[in-house]
Design a protein that fits this description.
31% helix; eight-stranded mixed sheet; alpha/beta; binds iron/sulfur cluster; four-stranded antiparallel sheet; 334 residues
Length: 334
């Protein structure tokens, strides 16, 4: 039974494996988070950390096989999404939970006008006639601040700039007033100025609708002004979770600290950026113990054999999977 008493979206101990001819690969290993109404949660990690696979599992978009959800629960206002039939799952998608994809050009149909693509949502899901559906499409384009929407509704995707196309994608995700929107790297293909405009637009739309926004990103800089809370993933596992302000000022995990040191900042002009050494592990060869230990400047012998538990830290809701979480957390970011 769905109920306002339940958190908006709960992901609990989610595990996703891919069974391939070369063996089983665990792409997501015990991910848990809660997204509340009107909240923005950033799921952060480098490429291959499992964040996009986790989002697709929540959306019900993984192909099975090769993907298998081997453990865990995904609840939308208490409704168990993983237990639903494919037909019920399709009904939830778009109406209650929707997704903004990173590549608008491939996600949109090149031979249909954006107005027809938006109107289709209202015709299929709300049963509106052509004129009424097109009028809704114009209103939606206005809502995502596309200038001259009434004229541009007849244009095709290639006639829009990258930023405007991403606004069309946002419009499609919002068309049916979903409770949760998942934005998968929504600004990756855009330049920095347009990135900032899109992030501001998402924040404004969220305030207007009280939707929960799950932002998937590899860039701590992009979510600095938008995220309320941040969950950091590494090699399929959660390594840190905190309120955004706590994570930016007192991270409790060396990986998060490394990500922060590699983000350009106006107040550090002239100082070199410090990238994290090495590369994330392949999902087929995740190191034993703490998966980050081959790259960690703070690693000690036990890190290579003992997997760290997810320690609570003194700041509320803050946890870190590092043997030395308290010590790392004690040092503020300069
Ligand atoms: Fe680094 Fe060890 Fe902490 Fe892992 S457990 S992040 S290797 S110090």
């Amino acid at each position: 039974m769905s109920s306002a008493a339940h958190p908006l979206l709960e992901v609990e101990d989610l595990c996703v494996e891919f069974r391939t001819r070369r063996g089983t690969v665990r792409a997501v290993d015990g991910l848990s988070y809660t997204l509340r109404e009107g909240e923005t949660l950033a799921l952060l990690g480098e490429s291959g950390s499992g964040k996009s696979v986790a989002a697709q599992a929540v959306m019900g978009l993984l192909d099975t096989p090769p993907a298998h959800i081997t453990r865990g629960a995904v609840r939308l206002r208490g409704d168990d999404l993983l237990a639903m039939s494919p037909a019920r799952r399709r009904a939830v998608r778009g109406r209650r939970i929707s997704m903004i994809f990173q590549d608008a050009l491939t996600a949109l149909n090149p031979v249909l006008s954006v107005g027809d693509q938006l109107a289709e949502m209202y015709r299929v899901h709300r049963g509106l006639g052509r004129r009424a559906a097109l009028a809704e499409a114009v209103a939606l384009m206005d809502r995502v601040r596309i200038p001259a929407a009434a004229r541009r509704v007849h244009d095709h995707p290639h006639q829009f700039s990258g930023g405007m196309r991403q606004r069309v994608m946002i419009a499609m995700a919002l068309a049916l007033d979903p409770e949760v929107v998942i934005a998968d790297e929504p600004t990756t293909a855009l330049d920095v100025t347009v990135q900032a405009q899109i992030m501001r637009l998402l924040a404004q739309l969220q305030r207007e609708t009280a939707m929960g926004l799950l932002l998937i990103t590899h860039d701590l800089g992009v979510v600095a002004e938008t995220a309320d809370r941040i969950t950091v993933m590494y090699a399929g596992r959660t390594v840190e979770s905190a309120r955004a302000e706590d994570l930016y000022t007192r991270p409790g995990h060396p990986y998060t600290r490394g990500l922060l040191d590699s983000v350009p900042r106006l107040d550090r002009l002239g100082r070199p950026l410090v990238p994290i050494a090495g590369a994330p592990p392949l999902p087929t060869s995740v190191p034993a113990g703490c998966a980050f230990h081959p790259r960690c400047p703070r690693a000690e012998a036990r890190c290579g054999s003992e997997a760290p538990p997810f320690h609570p830290l003194p700041t509320p809701g803050h946890r870190s999977a590092c043997h030395f979480a308290e010590e790392v957390h004690r040092v503020p970011v300069d």
